[in-house]
Design brief:
Radius of gyration: 18 Å
CATH architecture: Up-down Bundle
Number of domains: 1
Distance between the termini: 31 Å
Order of helices and strands: HHHHH
Structural class: mainly alpha
Helix content: 55-70%
Largest sheet: none
Number of helices: 5
CATH class: Mainly Alpha
C-alpha cells in the first residue's frame, strides 16, 4: 500500500496534472539500488528482532527482549530507516518528485507522532536498559565506530 499503491497513484496524478519532471536515468538506477539496500536492511532488522527479541516487528507479537544486536547496534530504528529509504527510492524509480515528498512527509510524521509513543513503550517495558541504549545509539543516523558507553551513575537525558 505505502510503497506501491499510493506512490503509483501520486505518480499518475503528477503526470495527469502536468507536474511530472523527468529524472536523469542515473537517479532512476540509484533508486533501484537504494531500494535493494533498504530492503536488505529491513529484512536484517526483522530477523534480528525475531532472533534476539524473541518476537516479531508486529505489535501483536512484539519483542519480549530489547534488541540491540544486528543493525540495532548502530541505529535505533533500522526498520523505519529502511521504510523511509524505500519510499524515497520508489520516488526515484518512478521519477516522481511527489513520491519523494510523500516519503519525506511520512518520515516526519513517523518521527514526531509514532516514535515518541514507541519509545515511551520501550522505556516502560525495559526501563534503564532502554534508557542506556537510547543514550548510546542514535535514532536515525548510524554511528560509525563504537558507541560511547552511557555512564551508569548519571540519569539519562530524554532524546
Amino acid at each position: 500500500m505505502f510503497l506501491g499503491v499510493i506512490p503509483l497513484a501520486l505518480s499518475a496524478l503528477e503526470t495527469r496534472w502536468g507536474l511530472a519532471v523527468a529524472f536523469p536515468s542515473a537517479l532512476v538506477w540509484a533508486g533501484w539500488a537504494l531500494f535493494l539496500l533498504a530492503s536488505i536492511l529491513g529484512l536484517w532488522s526483522a530477523a534480528a528482532m525475531n532472533v534476539n527479541g524473541d518476537g516479531t516487528p508486529l505489535p501483536a507479537a512484539t519483542a519480549n527482549r530489547l534488541v540491540t544486536a544486528g543493525p540495532y547496534r548502530v541505529v535505533r530504528n533500522p526498520m523505519a530507516v529502511s521504510g523511509f529509504v524505500q519510499g524515497a527510492a520508489v520516488g526515484l524509480m518512478l521519477s516522481s518528485w511527489m513520491v519523494v515528498v510523500y516519503a519525506v512527509l511520512g518520515s516526519l510524521l513517523w518521527n514526531f507522532a509514532v516514535r515518541p509513543l514507541e519509545e515511551a513503550d520501550l522505556e516502560a517495558r525495559f526501563g534503564d536498559e532502554f534508557r542506556r541504549y537510547r543514550d548510546t545509539v542514535r535514532c536515525w543516523i548510524p554511528r560509525l565506530g563504537p558507541a560511547p558507553e552511557a555512564p551508569e551513575d548519571v540519569e539519562p537525558t530524554p532524546s
